[in-house]
Amino acid sequence: MNTPLKFKIKPFQELSINELYSILQLRAEVFVVEQECAYQDVDGKDKKAIHVVGLKNEKIIAYSRIFNAGDYFENASMGRIVVQKDERKYGYGHDLVKVSIEAIREHFKESTIKISAQTYLKDFYYSHGFHQTGNEYLEDGIPHIAMIKTN
Question: Is residue 132 part of a domain?
């Protein structure tokens, strides 16, 4: 059932222990298990980020983290963009990206956003106004491209 997500946007210090646990569980479920990629997810950057949490029936099923310019890339950025596998068919990824872009504008007053996108999602990010910059590269063994959105 396509229930609209409820979004919460919080700095790290305002996340509850249960929220943080659910976020880390979702990220591991998708990035480590589903994508079969052993990498260091807990990278020390969560403390600098603002966390965008998408809830469906009070369960975290979508998530991203956003950064001010200079905290991750030279430009404002977003990453760890994830939707639980069985919920992707409802288009929640689009909702998550739209809310994340708006949160960057609201919290950081930035209009240029850089992401490191998995290459297979290029068209998805194109649909949100991102454009590829540079060549494909491997990040944790997965093909990625740098993408930028302005205004």
Answer: no
In angstroms, the CA 131 to CA 3 distance is 30
| Rounded Cα–Cα distance for residues 107 and 91 (Å) | 25
- Tens place of pLDDT per residue across the chain (151 aa): 578 999 999 999 999 999 999 999 999 999 989 988 888 889 999 999 999 999 999 999 999 999 999 999 999 999 999 999 999 999 999 999 999 999 999 999 999 999 999 999 999 999 999 999 999 999 988 999 999 999 7
* Structural domain that includes position 41: 6-109
- Kindly compute the dihedral angle of the four CA atoms of residues 36, 11, 66, 4, in this order, to the nearest 10 degrees: 80
Specify if 137 maps to a domain. Answer: no
Name the 3-class secondary structure at 24.
Answer: helix
